[in-house]
Amino acid sequence: MDKIRIQDLEVFANHGVFPEETALGQKFLVSAELFADTRKAGKSDELEYSIHYGLVCQEITRYMKENTCRLIEAAAEGVAEHLLLTFPLMRGIRLEIKKPWAPVGLPLDTVSVQIERRWHRAYVAFGSNMGDREAHIQAGIRLLSENRAVRMEKVSDMIVTEPYGGVEQEDFLNGCLELETLLSPHELLDLLHEAEQQEKRERLIHWGPRTLDLDLLFYDDEILETPELVVPHPEIQKRTFVLEPLAQIAPYKLHPVLRKRVKELLSELKGGE
């Protein structure tokens, strides 16, 4: 990915733990590496195909001046998110905020915080087999879409499937969606749970009936295993009701563990039925 660099932009702003820092203000130095595809801009010599670094500098300055944070970590987080939401061609950012006058009572040059944030691509499976199934699903998708750190990309058709797991219950309405997000995997999981809870999802019976079920399938090409979350979802390759709608929107998505594409996994699973 190409980079545009901004080095040591000076901003006088009111951030700090101590009252005098937020009252009187102080100088900060902000540096940024903006990740974007600049090839079209380079070929056409047209600014519309790149990121206007002058406007970026203005937005950094405005955000730093209009907001007050106790920690420069919080200021960096806010600036990075604001820029990623403001400039559509910006795919990621590496941001550093330096504090030259840090009140530590000892001689030093600067104290700084550097973070890297970017848009991530995730795939989510959805399902419902209670009440108005489509209404539950649409409400969940709407809640995800309304989060400013989420961009909805594709939504598959909804398919009717038989229950999975051996529990006697009504047929499911299933599908998959693709989104881009600034959220971490665990933050995205929390948002999925929030959408389920909005539709009064109850976890009473394993693989039992539910108003709304949202499962995180893939998050970029990350392989993650924690007590709360496993990515890729460990059951993907066993579930036709996941692979069929997923193959509609991402047939060539490569499973980072199995090293097979979605359409291959679906073909193998159907061949084994």
Question: Could you provide a short overview of the structure?
Answer:
It contains eight helices and eleven strands. By secondary structure, it is of the alpha+beta class.
Poorly predicted regions are none
- Tally the beta strands: 11
Q: What is the radius of gyration computed over CA atoms, rounded to a whole number of angstroms? A: 23 Å
General shape: elongated
Largest sheet: 5 strands, antiparallel
Strand coverage percent: 25-35%
User: Distance between termini?
Assistant: 42 Å
The helix/strand series, from N terminus to C terminus, equals EHEHHHEEEHEEEHEEEHH
| Helical content (DSSP H or I, runs of 4+) | 25-40%
Which structural class best describes the helix and strand composition? alpha+beta
Please tally the helical runs, counting DSSP H or I stretches of 4 or more residues: 8
Global mean pLDDT? 93
Give an overview of the whole structure.
By secondary structure, the protein is an alpha+beta fold. It has eight helices and eleven strands. It has helices at 19-24, 39-44, 53-66, 72-86, 133-146, 185-198, 240-249, 262-271; strands at residues 2-13, 26-36, 92-99, 111-118, 120-128, 150-155, 159-161, 172-181, 213-219, 224-225, 230-231. The strands form three sheets. Strands 5, 6, 7, 8 and 9 form a five-stranded antiparallel β-sheet that branches. The chain has a four-stranded antiparallel β-sheet with strand order 1-2-3-4. Strands 10-11 form a two-stranded antiparallel sheet. Strand 10 (224-225) and strand 11 (230-231) form a beta hairpin. Helix 3 crosses helix 4 and helix 5 (133-146) crosses helix 6 (185-198). The radius of gyration is 23 Å and the shape is elongated. The two termini are 42 Å apart. The mean pLDDT is 93.
